[in-house]
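Retro notes (design track)

What went well: tokenization of the new backbones is finally stable.
What didn't: we kept losing track of which sequence belonged to which structure.
Fix going forward: every design gets posted as structure first, then sequence, in one message. First example under the new rule, 403 residues:
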């Protein structure tokens, strides 16, 4: 058994990976990556929700051959899991998103790239090769910048755009505020630069303190019709949030802009009502997400929101989920509750902080192995066999209910 697992003996679980990563990161980075918004209760509930379910294993089923792969964006993905878009990965390791892309390519796992990456989308696409990659988008009212970004993404072979819809306003992250989070001077957010603009952008990352803005003017018109263009440079505080986003105007526009070349997904759906609107507006897929508990604190854990979304969508479009996934059995449970695929955020950042590309591979290998193990021990040999028949829900008094 252990021969099958060329693992790092110091790090056999995602929780150990988190501990190793913690000592590799400076305080500002560790806090930025790990914290949730406000009291962090939604962040914690994302994790705890998985413990409300138990697996009903079936036996004597010949599990000598287990196929953990699924099809996503026309590609075979080694496991039903991808790497969620997370911003500014060079804070964790000098290779940043490039290391993540190389690890994803090696492991045959889809990668989401944040538009606030510290590496260009072209470099990531090149490092990721034929492996599917999707671009996460924060859509500004001012369209110039997004038009250029989408054109670049199409040219670089991105399969889909994940429009993040849970950030009309940025959640309050108290540690980030207390630490006066600032991107170090040697890093930049190159997807916001005009191509060919190689001027260092370091000074422009400080919250609202820079003097210039590259790329086009972002901003929005407020409810009183006043034009609001955030002052200072493009920073995530001033430019990730767009309170004016709406289904009618923005989804239709984005679909047109992406044409047949890139799918349009919405990331950050948490209710049946919005899932129905997503179907109605013709999006290609949904990611049930609360941004890893970094936006609306007090929102439902994603695993708890998943069933109503799945029921509303009725299989018309794929439903993915992220938030709190730290074990192979978590992936199994999410799939049993109807998700087609899951994404992980922080564990990859911890892998990156621990050992760069090798650490991300380790993270993905640990989870791949745990998924295979969960499937085999539950008596399942193919991902699409995983269903709610394999799950029970257990309440606080210990009452066990079939689903
Ligand atoms: C440090 C950090 C940065 C993130 N940056 C982005 C981002 O740029 N765009 C986005 O849509 N989501 C972003 N997310 C949210 C993730 O895509 C994902 O929804 C979340 O991390 C999943 O939860 P998990 O970390 O518990 O796996 C970020 C999350 C973290 C932790
Ligand atoms: C606001 C972004 C730039 C990054 C993000 O989504 C996050 O930190 O959660």
């Amino acid at each position: 058994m252990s021969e099958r697992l060329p693992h790092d003996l110091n790090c056999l679980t995602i929780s150990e990976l988190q501990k190793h990563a913690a000592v590799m990161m400076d305080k500002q980075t560790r806090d930025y990556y790990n914290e949730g918004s406000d009291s962090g209760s939604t962040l914690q509930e994302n994790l705890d929700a998985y413990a409300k379910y138990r697996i009903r294993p079936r036996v004597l089923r010949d599990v000598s051959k287990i196929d953990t792969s699924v099809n996503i964006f026309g590609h075979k993905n080694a496991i039903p899991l991808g790497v969620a878009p997370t911003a500014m990965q060079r804070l964790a390791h000098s290779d940043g998103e490039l290391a993540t892309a190389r690890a994803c390519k090696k492991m045959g796992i889809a990668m989401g790239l944040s538009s606030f990456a510290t590496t260009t989308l072209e470099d990531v696409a090149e490092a990721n090769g034929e492996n599917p990659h999707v671009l996460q988008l924060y859509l500004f009212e001012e369209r110039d910048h997004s038009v250029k970004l989408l054109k670049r993404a199409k040219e670089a072979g991105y399969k889909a755009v994940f429009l993040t819809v849970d950030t009309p306003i940025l959640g309050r992250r108290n540690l980030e505020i207390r630490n006066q989070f600032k991107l170090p001077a040697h890093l930049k957010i190159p997807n916001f630069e005009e191509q060919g603009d190689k001027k260092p952008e370091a000074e422009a990352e400080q919250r609202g303190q820079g003097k210039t803005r590259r790329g086009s003017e972002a901003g929005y018109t407020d409810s009183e019709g006043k034009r609001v263009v955030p002052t200072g440079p493009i920073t995530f505080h001033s430019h990730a949030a767009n309170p004016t986003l709406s289904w009618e105007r923005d989804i239709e526009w984005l679909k047109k802009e992406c044409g047949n070349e890139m799918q349009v997904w919405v990331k950050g759906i948490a209710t049946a009502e919005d899932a129905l609107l997503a179907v109605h507006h013709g999006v290609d897929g949904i990611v049930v997400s609360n941004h890893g508990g970094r936006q609306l604190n007090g929102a439902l854990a994603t695993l708890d929101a998943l069933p109503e979304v799945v029921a509303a969508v009725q299989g018309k479009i794929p439903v993915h989920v992220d938030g709190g996934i730290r074990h192979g059995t978590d992936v199994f449970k999410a799939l049993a509750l109807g998700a087609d695929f899951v994404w992980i955020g922080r564990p990859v950042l911890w892998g990156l902080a621990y050992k760069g590309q090798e650490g991300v591979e380790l993270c993905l290998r640990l989870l791949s192995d745990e998924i295979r193990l969960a499937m085999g021990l539950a008596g399942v040999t193919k991902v699409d066999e995983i269903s709610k028949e394999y799950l029970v829900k257990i309440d606080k008094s210990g009452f066990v209910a079939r689903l």
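Added context from the reviewer: The pocket of 2-OXO-4-methylpentanoic acid (ligand 2) is lined by residues 87, 116, 170, 236, 240, 291, 294 (CB under 6 Å).
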